Amino acid sequence: MNIERYRPDSALHFVIVDTVDGAQDMIDAQDYDAAIVDWNLPDGLGTDLAKYIRGAGKDMPILFLSGVFTPDRRTEAEHYAPSACLEKDFSKEHVENLHRLIQDMLKSGGL
Q: Mean pLDDT in runs of 10 for the chain (111 residues)?
């Protein structure tokens, strides 16, 4: 998924990290407006990162992405007060909807 490819006019800037450890380092280094977190990462689960974010006192919106959100996954995700749990879809329409969701969240103050 590449929002910048589908929406080159977007004012959103993305920092992409593909591991829980890498994301934790980035979160420690600076503040972010939101976190889009894949459920399965090479070194852990997206919930590990969400737990870290919330444990660090960050109240940024968290959007979980997964190939499938089972009821159990949704229940687990709810522990971290996500703004959304979205199933992955790499279509242009999905990227447009994700872009709109992020913009709306940021305009409304996030959570």
A: 60 81 94 90 96 93 90 94 85 77 74 44
CA 1 to chain CA centroid, Å, is: 13
Contacts 24+ apart (CB under 8 A), 21-28: 23/49, 23/52, 24/49, 24/52, 27/52, 27/53, 27/56, 27/58, 28/56
Label residue 21 exposed, middle or buried (CB < 10 Å: 0-12, 13-18, 19+). middle
Q: For the whole model, what pTM was predicted?
A: 0.77
Which residues are within 8 A (CB) of 15 and not within 5 positions of it... i.e. 6 or more apart?
26, 32
CA–CA–CA angle 2, 40, 65 (5° rounding): 50
102: amino acid identity, one letter: I
Q: Are 67 and 89 in contact (CB under 8 A)?
A: no
How many CB atoms are located within 10 Å of the residue 6 CB? 16
Tell me if 92 sits within 8 A of 72, measured CB to CB. Answer: no
